[in-house]
Amino acid sequence: MPVETYLFRMVHMGFIYALAFLVYPFSKSAKPWLKGVDLLLAALGVATIVFALWDMDAFIRRSTVPDPPDFWLGIAAIVLLVEISAGPWA
């Protein structure tokens, strides 16, 4: 049975959020306080995906008129994606 496209993309974005924020803070050049911030950002990124996957059918149906949590977690996901794209490897 093939995996639906939106499920496939969401799961991969969850892995990207987790890996992108967890790779850099554990390098030797990272400051100690940045490790905690990056762990928090990785958890927030994964939480945005888990929220969407929690009840995916309802989430997809409300895509035209999102609830406030949908809106704010979507904004968080976009900001985190911009942060990843402007990371130390960019």
Summarize the model shown.
This protein is 73% helix and 0% strand. By secondary structure, the chain is mostly helical.
Outline the structure in words.
This protein has 90 residues and is an all-alpha fold. Helix content is 73%, strand content 0%. It has four helices and no strands. It has helices at 5-23, 32-54, 56-61, 68-85. Helix 1 runs antiparallel to helix 2 and helix 2 (32-54) packs across helix 4 (68-85). The longest helix is centred in the middle third of the chain and has 23 residues, at 32-54. It is elongated, with a radius of gyration of 15 Å. The N and C termini lie far apart (37 Å). The model has no long low-confidence stretch (mean pLDDT 87).
Number of strands: 0
Largest sheet: none
What's the overall average pLDDT, rounded?
Answer: 87
Run of helices and strands: HHHH
Shape descriptor reads elongated
Draw up the topology in text.
Layout: H1 5-23, H2 32-54, H3 56-61, H4 68-85
Helix pairs in contact: 1-2, 2-4
For the structure shown, list the relevant keywords:
single chain; 90 residues; mainly alpha; 4 helices; elongated
